[in-house]
């Protein structure tokens, strides 16, 4: 599958980080594990990738992915897992203009009542830019309306790294990274190199609501993530200061406005290039967990921080990995507020997807290997009921796979 040239940076930076080792002390692992790992047969064929997961109102699991068709063109597909069986795979969109990028992948969001929203990106003709596409289905994905572009600038630059959440009043809220300041038309001496994180909402009727900038200067290719909490939308992303400190910040959307960003934790990671390693966020009631990768002080590690007040405050982070992580994190939150964190480890023989449950008091349960993956792949994680599901692109088969971690008691 062809990749957009912006992904070339992934391999070089992750290779650099892989040679670093972590010396931070971590809490002792819990002596007993109550998890059962099982594989779920995948509905995706060979030559598939860019997987993503979503959970429907009744706990059903939606898997989306990009698959190469016989024509050689990429197609965005999805299937639904109900009662341990996948539905037939359906096509959302296809065509040679679709961007296939391991770090900037499509998503699907079930809104209830048979309504689905999907996003993907397409190349801008005769340029190096690409646009975000948003489409809705009102019949469980059998048909889709004509996609619309949520950003209004129409500059031929990169718009992507999308996170979708249900919007107040219906439709979807859309967060994306926006490079319009990189265009010659919009360039200025003060901000010509800045990428912003933008937001708008789209009604089911296709009406675009106001477009706003959440943060005018963020890390340019680290995926943001957003969830709904009791207080509204909470988004996590890799910020970027004038001194090139790229730590994780959160913002809240309350009363139709975004709060000022605040650090989850001040790692003070100074890096002069984007590490292509965004945070992950998950919530359950007032419990929130944010997981991220950092290599501050040349010590790569995966961290997770907890909040019990819908993200207003966070405790001291706990290191999740066992050493030598490459990042690309995922997280899910259990009823107890414990977090299930996933990450990627670059070993001598293979690249592994690992996971571990971490309790709010810092107790770390034994880590598990979920599978092997391709270099640069971004596994995804979602919780449904008493199970946490993982999806990734398996290394040897070049195929999207799915596994579930079942918990006896949360």
In short:
The protein has one domain: Neuraminidase.
Write a structural description.
The strands form seven sheets. Strands 2, 3, 4, 5 and 6 form a five-stranded antiparallel sheet that branches. Strands 14, 15, 16, 17 and 18 form a five-stranded antiparallel sheet that branches. The protein has one helix spanning 8-18, and strands at residues 35-40, 48-55, 61-68, 74-82, 85-86, 90-94, 107-112, 115-123, 130-137, 159-166, 172-178, 195-202, 212-218, 225-229, 232-238, 248-254, 257-258, 262-263, 280-284, 287-294, 301-307, 318-319, 325-333, 339-346, 351-358, 368-373, 380-384, 387-394, 399-407. It is 3% helix and 46% strand. The protein starts with 7 loop residues before the first helix and ends with a strand. By secondary structure, it is mainly beta. The chain has a single domain (5-407), classed as 6 Propeller (Neuraminidase).
Detail the topology: elements first, then pairings:
Layout: H1 8-18, E1 35-40, E2 48-55, E3 61-68, E4 74-82, E5 85-86, E6 90-94, E7 107-112, E8 115-123, E9 130-137, E10 159-166, E11 172-178, E12 195-202, E13 212-218, E14 225-229, E15 232-238, E16 248-254, E17 257-258, E18 262-263, E19 280-284, E20 287-294, E21 301-307, E22 318-319, E23 325-333, E24 339-346, E25 351-358, E26 368-373, E27 380-384, E28 387-394, E29 399-407
Antiparallel strand pairs: 1-29, 2-3, 3-4, 4-5, 4-6, 7-8, 8-9, 10-11, 11-12, 12-13, 14-15, 15-16, 16-17, 16-18, 19-20, 20-21, 21-22, 23-24, 24-25, 25-26, 27-28, 28-29
